[in-house]
Design a protein that fits this description.
The chain is mostly helical and 197 residues long. Among the domains are: 54-122; 140-190, no CATH class. It contains 7 helices and no strands. Helix 4 packs across helix 6 (166-175). The radius of gyration is 59 Å and the shape is rod-shaped.
Length: 197
Amino acid sequence: MNPPQVDDPWAEPGPVNRRPHLLAFGFGAALLLLGTGTVAIANASSTPKPDVVAIEQYCTLEQQGAHQLAEDLRRRERELEGREHAADAQRAEMAAAETRLTERLAELERTRAAVEALLGKADAERDARVDGLVKMIEANRPSGVSAMFAALDEALAVEVLDRMNRKKAGKLLAALPPAQAARLAERMTAPVTLEIP
């Protein structure tokens, strides 16, 4: 009997037949590809599409409540965003209205100032004319101007008498008919009414 051979690590290896190894490797790779494709097909066909009704059937009450709460919060957020946009639009409209109102008030103020200037000018011109009338009446004899003075409007006659020299005004009143002189004297002594702006 031959003694068992011990593998000598220092011995030279003999020729190796590589053909069975290649066949085994190729067969294993083919099986691996076939298995991967089958699993992918199985997974693709078995993955159900989300169904809201099915989700609600299988969810617990807590999950349904959380889902409903999330929907309510999203709805309220949309409502708040809508209100915020409406409030922004309203604020912009109010700012535009305020600007228009400010411009209108400025325009009215300018118009009021122009009217006051015109009224002041008209008052000054009227005062100058009344002063001219006062000088003309004072320059003449009371008997010569009494007929013309009697025909004046009573308000203007009182204003003229107020501006005249007191002595000359008294002589003019004496030259007028007694009833008219009494009315004018009464109006001259009437209480003054002040206009409040």
